[in-house]
Amino acid sequence: MTVVLSLSVLGRSGQLARALWRNEGLDAECLGRPEVDVADLASVRRALELRAGAIVANAAAYTAVDRAEAEPEAADRVNRLGAANAAQVAAEAESPIIHFSTDYVFDGAKAGAYREQDPVAPLSVYGTTKEAGERAVRENNPRHAIIRTAWLYSHEGDNFVASMLRLGRERAELRIVADQFGSPTYVEDLADAVAIIAHDLLRTGDRHRYGTFHYCGGGVVSRFEFAEAIFAEAARHGYRPPVLTPITTAEYPTPARRPANSALDCTRIAEAYGIRQRPWRDSLAECVARMLPQGRGGRSS
Ligand SMILES: NC(=O)c1ccc[n+]([C@@H]2O[C@H](COP(=O)([O-])OP(=O)(O)OC[C@H]3O[C@@H](n4cnc5c(N)ncnc54)[C@H](OP(=O)(O)O)[C@@H]3O)[C@@H](O)[C@H]2O)c1
After folding, report:
1. CA of 34: how far to CAs of 37, 43, 94, in Å?
2. Rounded distance, CA 149 to CA 133, Å?
3. Active site (annotated) includes residue 126
4. Which of 16, 130, 154, 187 maximizes ligand 1 atoms within 8 Å of its Cβ, making it the mutation to test the pocket?
5. Could you identify the atom of ligand 1 that is nearest to the CA of residue 157?
């Protein structure tokens, strides 16, 4: 793969931006706060200074799903206005934008996996602002690839895998929700997908490849099954797992409602770009191995 010299990534310190920065197929320039606030159009314009043929990747987002219920304006500012600004500045330079959205735009009531054209019906402020961000990107830049992903995790930063391993060190027993289903997505796999899309868009500029796409790890699991797998992988690195108890969503009330089923059908991205999902368990094994070098996984107490 030839190197993309000008992928301008917004949201510098987030887990996805950092994976784009690491990706060997990309030469990403990462921009973020404090210099660039995506909600401030002038700062986005100043920062991007796009060269012809550049691609913008907007990985900046307000991702605190529960906190957003109490801070809807703050979430809207980043997830809708920030997305609009990024898309507009890219459009002014006639550049494509790759923007990221979420499975939480759906209400989770569908029996099977969600297709891109299924009706959106977010249950939370976070989902509502992300859905508004999708519309803003479509309205401001016809050259867009909006990628909805799900249950994103990395070997660094704060995410479900990191939380499980931390809590498992602190407590002998963990209660995990067993009636929410989705597809864990390793951020390195998503970055690989972005690299394929960026190269393709630069090479072909094919308008048929613009639009909204789903991309997540291959397979569907409950939060409980995901936690079981995290600890099974960790145990291979000398970590002493806690006892896990399955509970219902009703037993673990949170400020934000989450979809019970957020399985995403990823056929469209496979057809447009040839991008295949990686089995979620293979990616998890790689992630945990990076987090827990052999023999360093034990409970601290
Ligand atoms: N995490 C998930 O489970 C998940 C699931 C589905 C979809 N997604 C989507 O995937 C994308 C990447 O998520 P992620 O997990 O990498 O998020 P993340 O780790 O929370 O990073 C988000 C980044 O956005 C930056 N940011 C927030 N407000 C900003 C502003 N006003 N101006 C500039 N930068 C700002 C943050 O900067 P600071 O460091 O300065 O706060 C942070 O670096 C997002 O679009 C998210 O909605 C995530």
Report:
1. 7, 10, 26
2. 14
3. yes
4. 16
5. 19
Q: Which residue has the tokens 């304006």?
A: 73
What does the alpha-carbon distance between residue 129 and residue 35 come to, in Å, rounded to a whole number?
23
pLDDT band at 206 (very low <50, low <70, confident <90, very high): confident
Question: Ligand 1, closest atom to CA 130?
Answer: 47
Amino acid at 213: F
Domains within the chain, CATH numbers bracketed: 4-154+183-218+263-278 (3.40.50.720)
- Out of 62, 126, 215, 239, pick the active-site residue: 126
Condensed to tens digits (0 to 9), the pLDDT of residues 233-265 reads 999 999 999 999 999 999 999 999 999 999 999
Residues with CB under 6 A from ligand 1: 11, 13-16, 32-33, 36-39, 59-63, 78, 82, 100, 102-103, 130, 149-152, 157
pLDDT for the residue 102:
98
H-state helical runs in the chain = 15-22, 41-48, 72-76, 83-92, 125-140, 160-170, 187-204, 223-235, 267-273, 280-291
Helix (H, G, I), strand (E, B) or coil at 88: helix
Testing ligand 1's pocket by substitution, the residue of 56, 152, 188 carrying the most ligand atoms inside 8 A of its CB is: 152
Tokens representing residue 162 in the block: 């990191």
What does DSSP assign to residue 259?
-
The rounded Å distance from CA 50 to ligand 1 centre is 22
Residues near 263 by beta carbon (within 8 Å), at least 6 away in sequence: 112, 113, 114, 181, 182, 183, 220
Q: Return d(Cα 254, Cα 270) in angstroms, integer.
A: 35
- Whether residue 59 contacts residue 100, with contact meaning beta carbons closer than 8 Å, is answered with yes
